[in-house]
Amino acid sequence: MSVSLKMDKIEYHTVIKFFLKEGILFGVKPKEIHSKFINVYGDSSPSFSTIKKWAAEFKHGHTSLEDDPRKGHPKSATPPEIIEQVHDMVLDDRRMKAREISETIGSSKERVGYILHEELDMKKLCARWVPRLLTAD
Length: 137
Fold this sequence. Notes:
Elements: H1 9-26, H2 30-41, H3 48-59, H4 80-92, H5 98-105, H6 109-119, E1 122-125, E2 128-131
Antiparallel strand pairs: 1-2
Helix pairs in contact: 1-3, 2-3, 5-6
């Protein structure tokens, strides 16, 4: 019976790791793990090549369920120094406008808005920038 369930990749990795640990006693192969996934998850199961890759990773001592960090661009295109500069400016004058901040640091208004909302987790409240999660500061 095929059930249409959706798992995230961490859950897939957990199940693959479990079957491999179980397979130490019973000699389970990636092909068998793949067929078990197909039986339970149908079309939403991972591909055989994915299972084979992760089985090899776990057999070679990989213990984490997360993917290794990749080389390349960082997640954030905004350097931490700029984020800190915006944070300091806002703490000095909470009524400062995003346009004024963008002119001061030489960045776009949209980037400043992203820094304020996403990086610093702030929002405008009664014409002042305040953190969403208030602290003693």
